[in-house]
Structure formats: C-alpha cells, structure tokens
C-alpha cells in the first residue's frame, strides 16, 4: 500500500468518528498527513515530540479519532493513548491499547501494579494509581520486548501539565532523562522489527515555552492550531450553531472547544466566562506587578501593538492565563492563518476574541466590556 492510499484510508475512517458531543469529526487532513508520513519531518520516530497548541484546539479529539481509524483499518500503525483521568481521581492513569496488544497488557499491569480491563470497543485498558511518566516508560519497554511485525507505534501522552513551576520542573526532568533512553529503545525495536516508536506529548499550557530553550534539541516541538475557517464552518453546522460564520471566525478563530461551549451555553456566557474573565484576571495580575493603573494600560497598549516586543513579565502573565501562545521557531502541524492582527511572528492570541476585547478595554481604560461592544467593533 502506497503512503497516499494509506493516508486516504485513515482520513476517510477518521471522518466517521463521533466526538464526545456525538458530532462527526471534521477535517484535519494536513495534520494527519504530517503525523503519518515520516517524509514530512514534523513528527519524529524515536523522539519525544511535544505537541502544544491553544487550549481547546482539538489535540485530544484528533488523536482519539486517529486511534479509532488505525484500529478500524488494516494498516501497520498503532496508536496507544495514555492519560490521567482527572474526573475519577488525580492519581489514576489509564493506558488504552489496541486489542492486538492484549497479550502484553498483563505484563504492563504487573510492572506498574495496575488492573487490566477490556473496553466496550475491544481495546485493552491498563489502569493504575501511578506516575504518568513511569507508565509511559513501562509501555515502551514492554513494546520493545513483546511487539513484533515492524509496526509504526505512536504513544500519545495526554493531560500533561505545564501550568506551574512544579509541573514544569517535573516535565523538564522527564524530558531530559527519558529522551535519550527512548532513542536507544526505538533503535532496539527498529533493529528487531523494522518498526518505530514515537512518543507524542500533548500540552495545552502555554507556559511550556519556558523550558523550550532548556531541553533544546533533545525533543521535537510541534504546534497544532485551531480549525481552518472551512472546517470551523463544517463543525458549526454539525453543532447546529445559528451564528454567522464570519462572527464565529472573528471571535473563536476556529477553536473547537469554544464552538462546543457556545453550542451548549450560548455566545454570551462563553464570552463572559472564557474571554472576559481571563482578561480581567490578567489586568489584576498586572496591577499587582506595576501597582499603577495608568502604567498597566500603557503596557497593555504596547502589547496590543506588538506582542513580540512585550516585556518578559507581561508575556509570562499572558502565557500563564493561556491568552497568548508562542508560535515562533517551531514546526507547525497545522496551517496558521495569515494577515490576522491577532497573530504575530513569535506570539499569537489563542483566540481572536482576546485581541478584540482587549482592544476595547484599552480604548476605554476599563475592564467593563460587554459582548455587544465587541460585536459592534469586529
């Protein structure tokens, strides 16, 4: 099977996947091709690949759809999905594996002291109250030892936190120690079977940019963006959103979670809780730093003109609130919109609503802004 036929079959199958809101998965052809086709040089076998992007841009849904497609098609790719299950308990880690891996499930469960179950989809699940990163290592070790057939194995590590000094330190430590080990284990697996093992770590916290220069080339960095305008329109139709496409684009920039939230709670509530609250909290953060309202507004005005030239303290506050994200000097898994005032060379607002709302706040020197004010100035 040629690579193009392989990609076509996977994409076709992904489009039949239903999301947690029971809507059809919409187009991510560019991202799928870059994940699957090694010649794209975006995602690298034998390496830890940090895949970050705006909160709610669809990283988790994308890889669940890819896992679904790889299991429903007769292809030589396997997607293993590892995640903390925060809704159940902060300590619980689950590893979802294709049913062809059931023979090594018990070995993994024994090594981490977990339990094995079979899901209604037929996938094997290992559950354990254990450190997330230790589960990843154990899974790779078991694959090298027991999986045959030269398969391309993608291990997706979800719900990786990078929102505090402590979580950043833990993540940095794992990256620095496991990166070299993974390279050797992948080489061993490749020599035995001809296959490859890739670890893709999903991170939604924009503060991840702070350790990029520390871990350097030990890991590969890739950026996943929101949906394209066309795909956003498709999802909006799936969600039965009766809002003009242009307005949705100018507010959400194609962010899938934002669209889903708007579909459930309405535009007004989404704006107040997801946009206005974060910007008001940012203002209070900056007031604690500068202690002068006029200074805060002047600083914010400079940010609006050019995020890239903002002081480090300002950038960190905006990154911590996930209002902006670093996009410079990184491989992009997605096509990022061009000629948009909310996207600069090195940094971008995670959604355009942040930019448009901040613009009105600055012009009024007030954090009291309503949705109607933003809509009137789009």
Give the tags:
378 residues, alpha/beta, Rossmann fold, nine-stranded mixed β-sheet, 49% helix
Describe the protein in words.
This protein has 378 residues and is α/β, with parallel strands linked by helices. The chain folds into two domains: 3-223, Rossmann fold (3-Layer(aba) Sandwich), CATH 3.40.50; 229-376, no CATH class. It has helices at residues 3-14, 29-36, 59-72, 102-112, 132-146, 165-193, 212-215, 229-238, 245-252, 256-265, 267-290, 293-305, 312-320, 352-364, 371-376; strands at 48-52, 77-84, 92-97, 115-118, 124-129, 152-158, 196-203, 220-223, 324-326, 331-332, 347-349. The strands form two sheets. The chain has a nine-stranded mixed β-sheet with strand order 4-5-3-2-6-7-1-8-10, sandwiched between helices. A two-stranded antiparallel sheet has the order 9-11. Strand 4 and strand 5 (124-129) form a beta hairpin. Helix 9 packs across helix 14 (352-364), helix 11 packs across helix 14 (352-364) and helix 12 crosses helix 14 (352-364). The relative contact order is 0.12.
What is this structure's SSE topology?
Elements lengths: L2 H12 L14 H8 L11 E5 L6 H14 L4 E8 L7 E6 L4 H11 L2 E4 L5 E6 L2 H15 L5 E7 L6 H29 L2 E8 L8 H4 L4 E4 L5 H10 L6 H8 L3 H10 L1 H24 L2 H13 L6 H9 L3 E3 L4 E2 L14 E3 L2 H13 L6 H6 L2
Describe what is shown at a glance.
With 378 residues, this protein is an alpha/beta fold. It has helices at 3-14, 29-36, 59-72, 102-112, 132-146, 165-193, 212-215, 229-238, 245-252, 256-265, 267-290, 293-305, 312-320, 352-364, 371-376, and strands at residues 48-52, 77-84, 92-97, 115-118, 124-129, 152-158, 196-203, 220-223, 324-326, 331-332, 347-349. It has two domains: 3-223, Rossmann fold (3-Layer(aba) Sandwich), CATH 3.40.50; 229-376, no CATH class.
């Amino acid at each position: 099977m040629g690579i193009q036929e392989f990609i076509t079959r996977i994409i076709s199958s992904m489009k039949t996947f239903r999301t947690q809101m029971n809507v059809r998965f919409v187009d991510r052809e560019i991202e799928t091709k870059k994940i699957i086709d090694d010649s794209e040089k975006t995602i690298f076998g034998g390496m830890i690949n940090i895949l970050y992007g705006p909160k709610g841009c669809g990283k988790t849904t994308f890889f669940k759809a890819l896992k679904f497609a790889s299991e429903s098609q007769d292809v030589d790719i396997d997607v293993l999905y590892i995640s903390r299950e925060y809704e159940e308990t902060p300590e619980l880690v689950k590893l979802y594996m294709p049913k062809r891996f059931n023979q090594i499930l018990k070995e993994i469960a024994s090594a981490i002291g977990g339990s094995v179950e079979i899901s209604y989809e037929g996938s094997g699940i290992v559950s354990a109250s254990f450190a997330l990163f230790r589960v990843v290592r154990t899974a790779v070790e078991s694959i090298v030892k027991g999986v045959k057939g030269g398969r391309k194995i993608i291990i997706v590590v979800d719900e990786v936190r990078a929102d505090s000094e402590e979580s950043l330190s833990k993540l940095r430590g794992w990256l620095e120690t496991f990166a070299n080990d993974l390279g050797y284990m992948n080489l061993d697996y490749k020599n035995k079977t001809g296959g490859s093992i890739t670890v893709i770590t999903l991170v939604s916290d924009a503060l991840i940019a702070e350790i990029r220069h520390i871990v350097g080339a030990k890991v590969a960095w890739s950026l996943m963006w929101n949906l394209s305008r066309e795909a956003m329109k498709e999802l909006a139709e799936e969600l039965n959103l009766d809002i003009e496409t242009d307005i949705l684009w100018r507010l959400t920039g194609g962010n899938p979670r934002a669209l889903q939230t708007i579909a459930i709670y309405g535009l007004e509530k989404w704006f107040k809780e997801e946009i206005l609250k974060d910007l008001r909290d940012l203002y209070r953060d900056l007031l604690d730093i500068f202690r002068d309202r006029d200074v805060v507004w002047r600083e914010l005005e400079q940010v609006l003109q050019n995020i890239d030239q903002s002081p480090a303290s300002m950038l960190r506050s905006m990154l911590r609130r996930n209002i902006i994200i670093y996009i410079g000097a990184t491989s992009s898994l997605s096509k990022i919109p061009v000629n948009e005032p909310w996207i600069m060379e090195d940094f971008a607002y995670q959604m355009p609503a942040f930019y448009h709302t901040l613009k009105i706040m600055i012009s009024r020197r007030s954090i009291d802004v309503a949705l109607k004010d933003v809509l009137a100035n789009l």
